[in-house]
Q: What sequence folds into this?
């Protein structure tokens, strides 16, 4: 079962999302929070697999809550944070990805998209669906970020792993990468796993951020 915590300051949103997810055969809604501080407290108490995190909340916003939950957590450890926002190009979305969130979803997305997003994030992937991600990456890449030297860890990647990382950063799925490189999808999954392990990243969302911030991939390539 995928354990889910819902953090949103609107009761109707919490209840609506809760009812939808609770109706799924593989999901269990373990709790809810009305602000970011409560979300942090409840997440530490309930140990959910996925936290649906609204961005704009009182006391502590979703960005601050995401940082508190994920700072210092080992790579690959729960919870996974799925950011909920009303604004598809909200500045906070980019900061949330930098803070370690596994992706974001618009609040007006169809119910099926929410269910799918929770499963994707719980499975260790990032929510980088083509319908949103291409534009997200373009917008993110166009924004000036802190100048950073390439991490030494990048040197540990093989040429093929570096190539796969570039394709991840361009929003390609495992299936698309496999087709482009003419290899089996399982081979791509193996490369992705090694990339995340070598770079101490939680998931593909962090890989995208790292690729752009280190200059491995540039906007417009």
A:
């Amino acid at each position: 079962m995928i354990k889910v915590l819902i953090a949103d300051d609107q009761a109707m949103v919490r209840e609506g999302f809760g009812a939808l997810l609770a109706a799924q055969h593989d999901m269990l809604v373990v709790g809810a929070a009305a602000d970011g501080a409560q979300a942090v407290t409840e997440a530490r108490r309930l140990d959910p697999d996925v936290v649906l995190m609204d961005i704009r909340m009182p006391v502590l916003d979703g960005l601050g809550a995401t940082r508190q939950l994920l700072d210092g957590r080992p790579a690959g450890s729960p919870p996974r944070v799925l950011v909920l926002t009303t604004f598809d190009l909200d500045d906070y979305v980019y900061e949330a990805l930098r803070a370690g969130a596994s992706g974001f979803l618009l609040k007006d997305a169809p119910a099926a998209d929410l269910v799918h997003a929770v499963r994707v994030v719980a499975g260790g992937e990032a929510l980088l669906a083509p319908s949103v991600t291409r534009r997200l990456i373009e917008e993110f890449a166009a924004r000036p970020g802190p100048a950073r030297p390439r991490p030494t860890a990048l040197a540990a990647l093989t040429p093929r792993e570096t190539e796969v990382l570039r394709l991840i950063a361009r929003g390609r799925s495992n299936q698309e990468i496999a087709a482009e490189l003419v290899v089996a999808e399982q081979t791509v999954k193996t490369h992705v796993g090694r990339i995340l392990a070598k770079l101490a990243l939680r998931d593909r969302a962090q890989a995208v951020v790292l690729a752009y911030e280190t200059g491995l991939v540039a906007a417009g390539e």
Observations:
- Residues 185-199 form the longest helix (15 residues).
- The chain is about 50% helix and 15% strand.
- The chain has a mean pLDDT of 83.
